[in-house]
Write a structure and sequence with these properties.
Residues 181-282 form the Acyl-CoA thioesterase 2 C-terminal domain. Keywords: Hydrolase, Lipid metabolism. This is Acyl-CoA thioesterase II. InterPro entries: Acyl-CoA_hotdog (IPR042171), Acyl_CoA_thio (IPR003703), HotDog_dom_sf (IPR029069), TesB_ACOT8-like_N (IPR049449), TesB_C (IPR025652). Helix 1 packs antiparallel against helix 5. 17% of the residues lie in helices and 37% in strands. A hairpin with a 3-residue loop joins strand 4 and strand 5 (82-91). The protein has 293 residues and is an alpha+beta fold. It starts with 7 loop residues before the first strand and ends in a 6-residue tail after the last strand. The protein has two domains: 1-106, Hotdog Thioesterase (Thiol Ester Dehydrase, Chain A), CATH 3.10.129; 129-293, Hotdog Thioesterase (Thiol Ester Dehydrase, Chain A). It is built from six helices and twelve strands. The longest helix is centred in the N-terminal third of the chain and has 14 residues, at 31-44. It has helices at 31-44, 132-141, 154-157, 168-173, 197-208, 212-216; strands at 8-12, 15-18, 50-59, 69-78, 82-91, 94-105, 161-165, 181-188, 226-237, 248-258, 261-269, 275-287. It has a twelve-stranded antiparallel sheet with strand order 1-2-4-5-6-3-9-12-11-10-8-7.
Length: 293
């Protein structure tokens, strides 16, 4: 049974404690989960009528799934049209994650227009594709070594989400370091009330951290013995209204790599072709020797 990941307990006006999403905590907590809980904590302190539009964060230390996380919110500014919140995520008295959130007063937006880039061409419908989990299990049953697969083990760290790669072979095997882009359909499996905009926005930020590191690793022909971790992450929400329960297309591209750091850009699209969110993430990816594992 999948569960809603947003489980925050209020300690006081600016302090919240959150639990991990995994039903059987046993490893490092998913960074997108920490970011989304931090966003929820910031939202709870925001003025009425203000909505998230920009997020910038740093993944500082790996968090433990089995230990509650404390979120300390700082009110930086409450202006007429914009508000700023700063959130520290803490475990064992150490900061594991820092995030800044900017909110806009929606009622102040008048006489504007929308500009949306062209939706990717020839993208198959998600109903015609298999999930990353099913595809992985099928490959293993065919005799493939799971240690050679790319992609995150999402069934444990993000149980509320389903991912269907447009190109399963590219997702799992890469293409000898040639391809730098990939497309993924992602869906949140638990119904969200249309009025719950906080959960809708935090959930798309939650899933926005998925697979960017995987896309960065497409540039590497050697599949094994790589350290892969997110360093920082930014996201810009373009549409306040969208259906988080429908399939969302995540378009990802690795645009640069140097000094073990890969920069990956992303676009999240609704099925009807509207650009919901843009993302950028820098990931640490490099080969380590087997003796050091």
């Amino acid at each position: 049974m999948v569960r809603e990941w947003r489980r925050l307990q209020k300690v006081d006006e600016l302090t919240y404690i959150g639990e991990c999403d995994s039903e059987h905590p046993q490893a490092r907590v998913f960074g997108g989960h920490v970011l989304a809980q931090a966003m929820s904590a910031a939202y709870y302190t925001a003025p009425e009528g203000f909505y998230m539009h920009a997020v910038h964060c740093y993944f500082i230390r790996g968090g433990e799934e089995s230990i509650p996380i404390t979120y300390n919110v700082k009110k930086i500014r409450d202006g007429r049209n914009f508000a700023i919140r700063y959130v520290e995520a803490v475990q064992h008295n150490k900061v594991i994650h820092l995030a800044e959130f900017s909110l806009q007063k929606l009622a102040s937006v008048k006489d504007t227009f929308s500009l949306t880039p062209k939706f990717p061409e020839n993208v198959p419908d998600p109903d015609t594709l298999v999930s990353n989990i099913s595809g992985r299990h099928q490959k293993i049953s065919e005799g493939y070594d799971a240690r050679d697969f790319r992609g995150q083990v999402t069934e444990r760290m993000a149980p509320s989400l389903e991912i269907r790669p447009v190109d399963l072979d590219l997702y799992l095997h890469g293409n000898e370091g040639i391809n730098k882009t990939q497309l993924l359909w992602i869906r949140y499996k638990i119904p969200v009330e249309k009025s719950d905009y906080m959960l809708r926005h935090a959930t798309i930020v939650y899933l926005s951290d998925l697979e960017l590191v995987t896309t960065g690793s497409l540039c590497f022909s050697d599949k094994r013995f790589k350290l892969q971790t997110s360093m920082d992450h930014s996201a810009w929400i373009h549409q306040y209204e969208f259906d988080i329960n429908d399939w969302i297309l995540y378009e990802q591209e690795c645009v640069a790599n140097s000094n073990h750091r890969s920069l990956i850009h992303g676009r999240l699209w609704s099925r009807d072709g509207q650009l919901i969110m843009s993302t950028s993430q820098e990931a640490l990816i490099y080969k380590v020797q087997p003796s050091k594992l």
